[in-house]
Specification:
The protein is 3% helix and 41% strand. It is mainly beta. It has four domains: 117 residues, no CATH class; 227 residues, 3 Solenoid (Pectate Lyase C-like); 80 residues; 199 residues, no CATH class. The strands form nine sheets. Strands 12, 13, 16, 28, 31, 34, 37, 40, 41, 44, 47, 50 and 53 form a 13-stranded parallel beta sheet that branches. The longest helix is centred in the last third of the chain and has 8 residues. The N terminus is likely disordered.
């Protein structure tokens, strides 16, 4: 309903759930003071051209907001929108406490203001200044995760943890959201992401001499993480004997006396920010809760069992969960390859994006269809940075139970190992991106997945992209796979199936794979229905294997034989793709690259950098479009 020009104060009983409009119809915008009787507002400014911007304004029932449109203009003019409020959350990591100015596009003239009631609430948690007896507002926040776990939230609610704070608790998601109104667990304030530890600090160290220190510890911690004062975390190396302690970050557990020993040049209590031992398997635990968003959290130091199946962020049996912008690291057991960063299973409509996952005992990101009665369909894994994990970077797998795992997309991810890989004294074979169905005899399959525009490099003893065991219908497009980790004696760039593994309907196009032991490895060519416009290359030349198909190895001068035997890559390249600087990990194409304009249209419109495809007469090969 339209209101008269000037200051307005809508009330709860006056058309509160519908849009309320203030406008003089001529383009001038009034000053509007909103002092609602409800807790939350959505504010919409709509322009003359019909465009709109929607902002959520978080407030307590008596909070007052002032909206001022203080300049109207078209042509050379600009429209300025100012909003002020002490709990306004415009973006996930920024609470507005002072005036914020938003400049409209030159041609965009604001025409009217609309407000309406929404029912969701923002709750705030501050580990230092909070109190669980508080109402959970920004001015009076809660303190503990235990308080959050005990509450019931409504669709659209936000639970925000203060940046720079640390909790040694497990967040158990207590409620479900609804379509369009997820319940969000995220961050507020400035500084480092809020940290959720799955650990307990070991402290009060005693000096035994010769740089050997001990502290009481009731049980074998399994892992120790050393947090240096510069923020660098080092995974400790467990020794079998106390006498073996002679290097920093080594440790030993004295079982009869319940003590842990470390080697350190000075008192560990002051030498390190902390030494952490795991005491929980999870940092964030979500089971059978739908429409949940977890974002901007730093989860670390979890994993008390040396078994697979848990992760620092663990989501099970949920529809439409989103995990985004989180850091997940230093979790699990590297010796036994257990514990993952983000572990999801039996979820539908899952989105995992813009996360950084590293130093996880088994996988950085795992998506599983594992239990009967569930499905794992329409999964999206994108824009994640995943490195130095001890089995796989990104792993999609299903078990031998009824239910579908269909339509997954893995795109725009960066998966790699760097020189720090091997912390904890362990080097284990690590895949980049893995898709697999049941390993046992089964009629069930992982089906209709797409893997495109990913960057994978320096895997150790294993594959960059691997499709194994009972997978049907995978499209592998425009990935760049490069190099092997120092010391590797094996590994393939793209590996498809194997004898009796029942892989089928695989399409491989527009990929660049360089300097793997075999850039392409296909034991049974019948697994692949199309393979073309790829670049396979080994800089060593000579006897170096470029591809291996049906047990036959093809070398630098065997391209014609490979094409004749397989019918593949009639438009492929068998030469240096000419990267900008592979040694510096810049895998963009130079202007002289033979991979420019030599790909084929596979229906994709953006490359790894978000550049429109194609830039030339045809798409390029690899993850980067030359521009």
């Amino acid at each position: 309903m339209s209101k008269a020009f000037g200051e307005q104060t809508p009330t709860l009983g006056e058309d509160a759930v519908s849009w309320q409009t203030w406008s003089d119809g001529a383009g001038a915008i009034p000053n509007v003071t909103i002092n609602p009787d409800w807790g939350k507002l959505s504010l919409q400014m709509a322009g003359a051209e019909g465009r709109s911007a929607v902002y959520d304004l978080g407030s307590a029932a008596t909070r007052k907001f002032t909206l001022t449109e203080n300049r109207y203009g078209t042509g050379s003019g600009v429209g300025l929108l100012q909003i002020r409020g002490d709990t306004v959350a415009f973006i996930q990591d920024d609470d507005i406490v002072d005036w914020e100015t938003y400049t409209a596009p030159v041609s965009h003239a604001w025409r009217y203001v609309q407000v309406r009631e929404t029912t969701f609430v923002y709750y705030y948690v501050d580990a230092t200044l909070g109190d669980d007896a508080h109402p959970g507002t920004r001015a009076e926040p809660w303190q503990t995760i235990a308080k959050v776990n005990g509450e019931t939230f409504l669709p659209g609610d936000h639970v925000l943890f203060k940046r720079g704070e640390t909790w040694r608790e497990q967040l158990n998601i207590p409620s479900s959201g609804s379509a369009g109104l997820p319940i969000t667990f995220s961050a507020y304030g400035s500084g480092d992401l809020p940290r959720i530890y799955g650990s307990t600090q070991i402290s009060t160290w005693s000096d035994e001499g010769s740089n050997i220190w001990w502290a009481d510890c009731a049980t074998d911690p399994g892992n120790l993480w050393f947090v240096n004062t510069n923020g660098v975390i080092v995974w400790g190396t467990k020794e079998a004997l106390k006498a073996s302690l002679d290097t920093e970050y080594e440790w030993w557990f004295d079982d009869p006396n319940n003590r842990v020993y470390v080697y350190a040049a000075s008192d560990p209590d002051s030498r390190y920010t902390s030494i952490e031992k795991p005491t929980r398997n999870y940092c964030v635990y979500c089971s059978n809760k739908d429409y949940i968003t977890v974002s901007y959290l730093d989860c670390q130091f979890s994993g008390i069992t040396d078994e697979d199946g848990y992760g620092a962020i663990w989501v099970h049996g949920s529809d439409y969960p989103i995990i985004e912008y989180c850091k997940v690291h230093h979790t699990g057991y590297i010796v036994s390859n257990s514990g993952s960063g983000i572990y999801t299973l039996n979820d539908n409509g899952l989105i995992v994006r813009y996360n950084t996952c590293y130093f996880c005992g088994r996988r950085g990101i795992v998506v599983a269809m594992y239990n009967a009665g569930y499905t794992s369909d329409n999964i999206l894994i994108e824009h994640n940075t995943v490195y130095n994990n001890y089995h796989a970077g990104i792993d999609l797998f299903r078990s031998n139970v009824a239910g579908s795992f269909d339509g997954a997309i893995v795109r725009y991810n960066h998966v790699y190992n760097d020189s720090d890989f091997g912390q904890g004294g362990v080097l284990t074979a690590s895949h980049g991106i893995l898709l697999e169905g049941p390993t046992a005899a089964s009629s069930y399959r992982l089906t209709n997945a797409k893997v495109y525009y990913n960057l994978v490099h320096h895997m150790y003893q294993d594959q960059g992209i691997i499709v194994a065991y009972k997978v049907d219908g995978v499209e592998i497009y425009n990935n760049t796979v490069y190099g092997i980790f120092t010391g590797s004696t094996g590994g393939q760039g793209i590996s498809i199936g194997g004898t009796g593994l029942l892989v089928s309907n695989i399409i491989i196009k527009n990929n660049i794979v360089v300097d793997q032991f075999s850039p392409l490895y296909v034991p049974e060519s019948s697994d692949v229905i199309a393979c073309d416009n790829n670049c396979w290359y080994r800089s060593a030349g000579g006897t170096a294997v470029y591809t291996r198909v049906n047990g036959t190895a093809y070398h630098f001068n065997d391209q014609a034989a490979y094409q004749a035997a397989t019918g593949w890559d009639t438009n492929g390249k068998w030469e240096d793709p000419v990267f900008v600087d592979a040694g510096a990990l810049d895998f963009h194409l130079q202007t002289t690259s033979p991979c420019k304009n030599t790909g084929v249209d596979v229906g994709l419109s953006l490359d790894y950098d978000g550049i429109t495809v194609p830039q030339g007469a045809a798409p390029d090969m690899g993850a980067y479009e030359y521009h």
